[in-house]
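dumping this here so i dont lose it
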């Protein structure tokens, strides 16, 4: 049994992790190859809760364990409960009773979005067209993230009344009012801003269209369509009709697929450790699979099987043949690919360090507005491990080395869950003991990350305290 924890509490806790070097005295005793079940995809989970609340249905959402729910998702659950949406949690499922498009109640207190940018931005769109006022707040990290672009788009394009701080950040006051139809052109490809506009479009006096310069994730469009909304999609333009009639099924079940962005870190562990791994029930939305395409183009053999579609979202089984193949060539990531791998850039950057040749990341300036300035954080950590990297305003250039041996003993994650997981994977290739303080930050998206990592690299290499 790994040296770790059992139960996961509702909120953060203190957790420190040691990653031990793979020496002869700590030879990994790998578990038999068996499928790993990933945490539910939080991008889909957020949208299921919010869009599901707009229906008049009772939605049952099976879960493997309440401890596996990403912390960000709890922020959305609490927000919707404060708006009068009945949501019950148990060990095996979450049950939501939809209140319909006009069924929300004014909150009696400000809504805390915690660390979740998705919660905040989707709620801005949802609440802009209500008949009451709301106030959104967040933790220290979320309060540093820019919200002005979205507020300006809704204010000027649809007639919303959204007030921000002088710096264009939280707290946000949303004075709900009747919105007007409009045409919105996003300055950057952003699934969160696009989703906010579409949700606001359900509360307007006519059709609302939103166009982005490049394709971003399309979970919102797929779910709206699956639930009966009148939405049309042409290229990178989505148009929503406020006369939408959501599903009238009295009760239905929605199985949230496993998170492919979380899968990326375990896949990287398989690459680093030359291990075969199997991941079951993984979301395979075409706008989320580019990470797999990048690895396959570099030489890794990936098998996808048992693919099925449910409520407009594909899911299936991924097998990584890490024992017999690996990445070899530097990654080719075009500017058009960036919106489709935005969450995987941290782990791709780690893997690029072990590819012979040059990997260039550009047009990725949006990473500076995540939980941390991910571009700066990536450059700092990669340099600390000894990677030759050149920072640019909108990305960086990595000069990879197939024989590279990282040298660093302490991982700095800047409070960012993806930084903590990415550099835990980098730590697997060092010859020194690597430590991560306050590693509970991974619970934002992947609460049992280190336990699952231990299944791949060997239980004795991961110590959790």
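and the seq i came up w/
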């Amino acid at each position: 049994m790994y040296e770790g924890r059992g139960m996961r509490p509702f909120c953060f806790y203190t957790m420190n992790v040691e990653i031990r070097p793979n020496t002869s005295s700590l030879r990994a005793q790998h578990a038999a190859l068996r499928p790993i079940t990933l945490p539910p995809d939080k991008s889909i989970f957020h949208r299921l809760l919010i869009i599901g609340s707009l229906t008049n249905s009772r939605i049952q959402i099976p879960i493997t364990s309440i401890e596996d729910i990403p912390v960000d998702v709890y922020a959305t659950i609490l927000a919707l409960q404060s708006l009068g949406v009945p949501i019950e949690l148990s060990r095996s499922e979450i049950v939501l009773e939809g209140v319909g498009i006009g069924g929300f109640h004014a909150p009696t207190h400000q809504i805390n979005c915690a660390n979740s940018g998705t919660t905040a931005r989707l709620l801005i769109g949802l609440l802009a067209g209500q008949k009451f006022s709301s106030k959104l707040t967040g933790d220290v990290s979320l309060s540093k993230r820019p919200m002005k672009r979205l507020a300006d788009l809704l204010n000027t394009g649809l007639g919303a009344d959204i007030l921000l701080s002088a710096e264009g950040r939280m707290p946000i006051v949303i004075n709900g009012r009747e919105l007007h139809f409009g045409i919105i052109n996003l300055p950057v490809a952003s699934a969160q801003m696009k989703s906010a506009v579409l949700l606001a479009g359900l509360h307007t006096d006519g059709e609302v269209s939103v166009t982005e310069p490049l394709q971003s994730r399309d979970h919102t469009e797929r779910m709206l369509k699956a639930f009966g909304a009148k939405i049309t999609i042409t290229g990178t333009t989505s148009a929503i009709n406020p006369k939408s009639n959501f599903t009238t099924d009295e009760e239905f079940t929605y199985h949230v697929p496993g998170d492919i962005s979380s899968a990326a870190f375990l896949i990287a562990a398989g690459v680093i450790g030359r291990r075969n791994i199997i991941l079951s029930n993984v979301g395979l939305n075409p706008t989320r699979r580019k990470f797999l395409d990048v690895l396959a183009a570099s030489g890794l053999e990936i098998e996808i099987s048992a693919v099925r579609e449910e409520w407009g979202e594909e899911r299936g089984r991924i097998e990584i043949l890490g024992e017999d193949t690996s990445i070899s060539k530097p990654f080719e990531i075009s500017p058009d690919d960036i919106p489709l791998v935005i969450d995987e850039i941290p782990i791709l950057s780690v893997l690029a360090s072990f590819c012979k040749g040059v990997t260039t990341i550009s047009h990725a300036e949006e990473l500076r507005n995540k939980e941390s300035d991910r571009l700066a954080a990536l450059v700092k950590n990669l340099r600390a491990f000894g990677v030759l990297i050149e920072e640019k305003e909108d990305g960086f250039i990595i000069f990879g080395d197939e024989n590279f041996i990282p040298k660093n003993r302490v991982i700095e994650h800047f409070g960012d869950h993806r930084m903590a997981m990415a550099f835990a994977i980098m730590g697997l290739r060092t010859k020194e003991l690597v430590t991560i303080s306050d590693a509970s930050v991974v619970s934002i998206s992947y609460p049992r990350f280190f336990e699952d990592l231990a299944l791949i690299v060997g239980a004795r290499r991961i110590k959790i305290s």
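The domain at 17-40+257-464 is CATH 3.65.10.10 (UDP-n-acetylglucosamine1-carboxyvinyl-transferase; Chain).
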